[in-house]
Design brief:
This protein is of the alpha/beta class and about 350 residues long. It has three domains: about 5-125, Cobalt-precorrin-4 Transmethylase, domain 1 (3-Layer(aba) Sandwich); about 135-250, Helix Hairpins (Orthogonal Bundle); about 265-335, Orthogonal Bundle (Helix Hairpins), CATH 1.10.287. It is about 60% helix and about 5% strand. It is built from 16 helices and five strands. It has helices at about 20-25, 40-45, 65-70, 75-90, 105-115, 135-145, 155, 160-180, 185-205, 210-225, 230, 240-255, 270-280, 290-300, 305-325, 330-345; strands spanning about 5-10, 30-35, 50-55, 95-100, 120-125. Strands 3-2-4-1-5 form a five-stranded parallel beta sheet, sandwiched between helices. α2 (about 40-45) links the parallel β2 and β3. α8 (about 160-180) packs antiparallel against α9 (about 185-205) and α13 (about 270-280) packs across α15. It is elongated and about 95 Å long.
Length: about 350
């Protein structure tokens, strides 16, 4: 009895097949696949397996659609391909068809029904669960296409500098989604942030500087090095010791030329102040917080704008220092208070004009 084996494949990881999938390929008289851009074609060529590529847009020899075709949803082009696969199995006796990007569920269902009707022995080899992160490869491929010669003019014109503001905007949109506790918005905004990483990496690759794989490998290596309690024999008593070890390992890897080296001056003012105070505390320097009442009096009694600005700055720095003492992130605390203020105003009685 002639046999037709349908083998499921992954566009992102075309070489990933279960053992019985590869066994079917190696033992077949002929391997068929649809579309000249099928991701598995290169693997078949390297393995020197006899294979043929079927067109996906040729319906010239397709018969009229049957009632079964209408029920399964296959179109004329799909029906033509179904007939070619079944005829090949009858002729060669043992054929494997690689399901690929050009094949939808309707086509696969119609092919299975037609093969069974034709008296073929039909076997389906499903793809084993793919590793998480498969879609990341697709994102990398899409961005490479956008930056390619036939891609998007806007994408090709971008640079690290021109994209910098978008990275900041996307992070703040992510923060807002987190504040809203909206899972769908968080997922979407994480995608936008991820795009920035892939976009910048593609620009760097085009310039011959580094690749997305080097970016990923760098952070993987860093995570492994700085989690010896997970990937080595170190022991920790809890999260506080994890943070302490992380900071120590970071200092060992990147000795600082100064206390504040590596603190970005472009941080929002509250975060910048908190970082500086944190670094100073690590060096054993703690600011002396002034009396709140005296600080307020200094603001009210300032003789000019410069003096008022200095007094307000010292007051705000005291607030940041107080937040650090209490283990509170001042940026997050202020954002929460500001959002509550906004909600209170928006939900209040409307004012007549």
């Amino acid at each position: 009895m002639a046999r037709l084996v349908l083998v499921d494949t992954s566009a992102a990881l075309p070489g990933l097949l279960p053992l019985h999938g590869w066994s079917a390929l190696m033992s077949s008289e002929l391997v068929l696949l649809a579309g000249r851009d099928h991701p598995f074609a290169a693997h078949l060529a390297m393995a020197d397996l006899r294979h043929e590529t079927l067109p996906v847009d040729d319906a010239a020899d397709a018969p009229a659609l049957t009632r079964t075709d209408l029920l399964t949803g296959v179109g004329p082009q799909g029906r033509a391909r179904v007939n070619r696969v079944v005829d090949a199995a009858r002729e060669h006796g043992d054929v494997t068809y690689l399901v690929g990007p050009a094949d939808d569920e309707a086509f696969t269902r119609a092919l299975g029904l037609e093969a069974a009707r034709a008296g073929l022995e039909v076997e389906m080899v499903y793809l084993t669960p793919t590793p998480r992160g498969e879609a990341l490869l697709e994102l990398v491929a899409v961005e490479e296409r956008l930056r390619g010669p036939d891609g998007c003019p806007w994408d090709r014109e971008q640079s690290h500098r021109s994209l910098a503001r978008y990275a900041v905007e996307e992070v703040y949109e992510l923060l807002e989604a987190i504040d809203d506790d909206d899972p769908d918005a968080i997922r979407e905004e994480l995608g936008d942030v991820l795009l920035q990483v892939v976009f910048h990496a593609q620009i760097a690759q085009d310039e011959g500087r580094f690749t997305i794989d080097e970016v990923a490998r760098g952070i993987v290596d860093k995570l492994v090095r700085r989690h010896p309690h997970v990937f080595a024999d170190a022991r920790v008593s809890g999260a506080d010791e994890v943070v302490t070890n992380w900071d120590r390992l970071k200092r060992d890897e990147k000795p600082r030329a100064g206390v504040f080296e590596g603190v970005p001056a472009a941080l929002p003012a509250l975060q910048y102040a908190a970082k500086l105070l944190g670094r100073a505390a690590e060096a054993g320097v703690r600011p002396e917080r002034g009396d709140v009442g005296a600080r307020l009096d200094a603001v009210a009694g300032a003789e000019d704008d410069d003096a008022r600005t200095r007094a307000l700055g010292l007051l705000l720095l005291d607030v940041v220092a107080l937040a650090a003492e209490q283990g509170v992130d001042p940026e997050s605390a202020l954002r929460v208070a500001a959002r509550r203020f906004r909600d209170r105003v928006e939900s209040g009685p409307s004012r007549g004009g």
